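tl;dr need the bound structure. longer version: we got a ligand (nicotinamide-adenine-dinucleotide) that a collaborator sent over and nobodys looked at where it sits. i said id run it. heres the input, straight from their email, havent touched it
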Amino acid sequence: MTILITGFAGFIGFHAARDFLRRGWWVVGVDNFCDYYDVKLKRDRAAILGEQPGFTAHELDICDFAGLEKVFAEEAPDVVLNLAAQPGVRYSITHPFIYQKSNVEGFLNVLECCRHAAKVPKLVFASSSSVYGGNTKMPFEESDQVDTPVSLYAATKKANELMAHTYSHLYKMQTIGLRFFTVYGAWYRPDMALSLFADAMLHGRPIKVFNNGDMLRDFTFVDDIVDGIVRVVEAQNLPLYDIFNIGNHRSEKLLDVIETLAAALGVTPKMEMLPMQAGDLYATYASIDKLNKAVGYVPKTTIREGVPVFAKWYREYHGL
Ligand SMILES: NC(=O)c1ccc[n+]([C@@H]2O[C@H](COP(=O)([O-])OP(=O)(O)OC[C@H]3O[C@@H](n4cnc5c(N)ncnc54)[C@H](O)[C@@H]3O)[C@@H](O)[C@H]2O)c1
């Protein structure tokens, strides 16, 4: 079986590709190596994957429709895992157009390539907990209304869910969206809070803590996310279209996470308390009952176990 992973050089794509290779899948990766964050980190991830038998990489933008069509024709994937996107809530306030490009136009290209493929693949795609926007009922359930996004990033992820539904309805192709909840782990993105905190802590700078630390996040260890992705990809019993939360079902206080990270790095953090940032959510908390019932998903990793794994990798990778 062949899986085409878009965004393979990214944080989640790298972990997912490694796991599918271990399981004996042929993995085809597509990534444009955009410079939203340190491209060396993406190249280092890609180099590790490049050494594995069964892996093929294409340096390509999913907005290049002709190029993407060619990859689909050559590789004939059984499954497509679409992770390529412009991530980041805050960045979407300053750089709106790239979100329309990669997340809407790029995603439409992926849908069109799936639809016209000789053998139509199953499409599993990344959505986000950010679609819950202004919702206050906890935990977030898939049946909740998600019509109040508070960032353009969230709006593009909701758009992906709607677009996928249309393609499943019109063309009877299977599309499954996964709403990821704050994923973290080794090989992490440098723009995410834990990385920014680790960098500041190890260089003796104060960390910027928004909303005075009064925030709650459902932090999900990347191995648990990959386990959920694999279960969804391999499941034979899912409907033509569905959406699932994929989180840890534990909403952590930001200050506890900071304390856990500081302990793992062996430092005493200095904190600069700041107001809430535009586009941010106060709390995220995933109901994971639906994914548990459908494919037996049970996340295993608490922040006490997962944060030290991230901290160890961070020190080693950055030589700190
Ligand atoms: N990490 C999280 O906590 C989180 C939470 C919710 C949703 N998500 C979603 O999961 C997916 C993966 O996130 P990640 O954390 O691994 O991010 P990432 O930025 O590390 O990975 C995305 C990859 O896609 C590539 N890419 C971006 N635009 C592209 C384009 N137009 N064509 C081809 N490649 C392109 C990038 O170069 C990058 O390697 C994204 O869709 C993101 O929105 C992530």
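gonna send this back to them w/ a short note. The pocket of nicotinamide-adenine-dinucleotide is lined by residues 6-7, 9-13, 30-34, 42, 61-63, 83-87, 102, 106, 126, 128, 180, 182-183, 189 (CB under 6 Å).
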